[in-house]
């Protein structure tokens, strides 16, 4: 891993941590605010997403410390729209997941052909976030 720009990789990983930690707050909020006929299933879904976001933040943090960096204690900005209908929360979730894909792609592009371990980590995370996006898109079909 001598070929990687370690400060830049740590910066991106900290950005991932901040974004994933904001996901914990976002999805926890959604799980509390969801109402209506799909409340039970969507509340459980959002809680699961919050737990997964925390795991993703922890994984990024482990890489930060493994590279000799200091994990961020901040979170990304969370825009509160005060729109808490299921369609609105799912649409915001889709946007959140798609933005996460872009951050992980930034990491992948920064380590491509330089660190197989971090490359594979980034690819795995892109896959996970893309699967989330696909699932949310399927959930949104009923609201079209």
Number of E-state strands: 0
Identify the overall geometry.
elongated
**CATH architecture title:** Up-down Bundle
Q: What fraction, in percent, of the residue positions are helical?
A: over 70%
User: Which structural class do the helices and strands define?
Assistant: mainly alpha
Count up the helices: 4
3D architecture notes:
This protein has 144 residues and is an all-alpha fold. It has a single domain (6-71, 84-143), classed as Ferritin (Up-down Bundle). The chain contains four helices and no strands. It has helices at residues 6-33, 39-66, 86-111, 116-140. It is elongated, with a radius of gyration of 16 Å.
List the helices and strands and how they pair.
Blueprint: H1 6-33, H2 39-66, H3 86-111, H4 116-140
Helix pairs in contact: 1-2, 1-3, 3-4
